[in-house]
């Protein structure tokens, strides 16, 4: 399904709507260039899960944990990882067992370790600065689900 947003607030609102359908163990594989809106969408997912903590990019920490919502949210940034082996070294399987949602930025770097993810591809519109074209596929999101 393809959704277009026209502001960071709309992107966050989309994330909140996505969060309503997330279940324990879901893995979200984000794809998109730097500045595409992956963290904005994750902020919305966190809000939709009832997490009130400030959500920031985990670029330097690899993973930020937000345990206080309906489901815990584990926000990963794989930009600095070069293989799935490095993902397992940081305890990926432990995060999967904790029954939360794993939101993975730069998932392309570890895609062979992600089983049946919900793939969210975010593209910046080259003609409109705040416009994003967001494609959601996988799991419960394969059909047009009215987001």
List keywords for this structure.
147 residues; Rossmann fold; seven-stranded mixed beta sheet; 7 strands
Helix residue percentage:
10-25%
CATH architecture identity: 3-Layer(aba) Sandwich
- Assign an overall shape: globular
Q: How many helices?
A: 4
Widest sheet: strand order?
1-7-6-2-5-4-3
**CATH level-four homologous superfamily name:** P-loop containing nucleotide triphosphate hydrolases
Topology-level CATH name:
Rossmann fold
- Structural category: alpha/beta
Domain unit count: 1
CATH class: Alpha Beta
- Alpha-carbon distance between the termini? 9 Å
Report the C-alpha radius of gyration, rounded. 14 Å
Write the H/E string, N to C: EHEHEEHHEEE
Strands, count = 7
Q: How many strands, which pairing sense, and closed or not: the largest β-sheet?
A: 7 strands, mixed
Taking pLDDT < 50 over at least 5 consecutive residues as the criterion, the unreliable ranges are none
């Amino acid at each position: 399904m393809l959704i277009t947003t026209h502001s960071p607030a709309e992107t966050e609102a989309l994330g909140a709507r996505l969060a309503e359908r997330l279940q324990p163990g879901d893995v979200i594989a984000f794809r998109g260039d730097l500045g595409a809106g992956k963290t904005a969408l994750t902020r919305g997912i966190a809000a939709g899960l009832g997490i009130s903590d400030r959500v920031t990019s985990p670029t330097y920490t690899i993973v930020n944990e937000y345990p206080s919502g309906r489901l815990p949210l584990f926000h990963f940034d794989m930009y600095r990882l070069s293989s799935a082996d490095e993902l397992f070294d940081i305890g990926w399987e432990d995060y999967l067992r904790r029954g939360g949602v794993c939101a993975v930025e730069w998932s392309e770097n570890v895609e062979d370790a992600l089983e049946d993810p919900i793939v969210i591809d975010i593209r910046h519109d080259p003609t409109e600065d705040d416009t994003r074209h967001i494609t959601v596929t996988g799991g419960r999101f394969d059909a047009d689900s009215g987001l």
